[in-house]
Amino acid sequence: MNKVMNNFKRLGNSTLNEIENENVKILDHLKIQKGQFLLPFFFTLNKIRTLGMKVLRVFFIKNYCNVCRMNLKKNFQKVILIDLTLMILLAIGFFYQSETILAFNESMNPSNNLNDMLLGVIALIFLILYLVNLYLLYKFKNLGKQMYLFIFIMGIVISLLSGTNASGPVMYTIDGLGWSISGVILGFLYFSPIKKEFEK
Q: Which residues contact 152 (CB under 8 A, 6 or more apart)?
């Protein structure tokens, strides 16, 4: 009798274990199915996040480039204004040279009415062209870029033809700064992204 009861107990325990194992398998299966159901959702979220990062990166780089270009344009315009200021100072300083310097220049270059008139007309034309050119450069006109190199070379030729001249320390400094600024402008026009602004 005891053996029969023990067999029933073993059978009952094994049945319970099987039922529990089946329930666990069912629950595990349900968990896996639930996870698999959510996989497309997480995959979609990941795609959206990746796309968002790409959009933000492109947007940031584009804005950064626009800011850099705007800063470059402002800096270029500041250089043009500095050049204009130096030219005005040079013109004013020309009328306030010391008598010693004027006497030396007259002794080195004897006055000749025809030559003086010719050089005066050329200098006046050069000055007008230079001022017009600075305006065109400030407004980023393509004609201004084409004119500047020509005017720069013209300025070198005028300097070479003007003969031996003395100048005071202030005039000498302003003249040197003017040539330096001209080099900066040429660098902007031909060796920086600012040249694209003149192609519009």
A: 182, 186
Q: Find out whether 134 and 151 touch, Cβ atoms under 8 Å.
A: no
SS3 (DSSP) at 95: coil
Six token digits for residue 49 = 């996040």
Kindly report the backbone phi and psi dihedral angles of residue 165, in degrees, each rounded to the nearest multiple of 5, phi listed first.
Answer: -140, 145
| 99, two tokens | 């008598």
First to last CA, the chain: 107
- In the chain, how many domains are there? 1
Q: Would you say 77 and 140 are in contact if contact means Cβ atoms under 8 Å apart?
A: no
91 occurs within a structural domain: yes
In a domain, residue 38? The reply is no
Say if 54 falls within a structural domain: no
Q: Look up residue 90 and give its amino acid.
A: L
Q: What is the mean pLDDT of each run of 10 residues along the chain (200 residues)?
A: 46 46 45 49 58 52 52 92 93 84 78 72 88 94 91 88 80 91 93 86
User: From the CA atom positions of the chain, what is the Rg in Å?
Assistant: 42
- CB of 186 within 8 A of CB of 152? yes
Residue ranges making up the domain that contains 119:
69-199
Distance, in Å, from the CA atom of 45 to the CA atom of 51, rounded to the nearest integer, reads 10
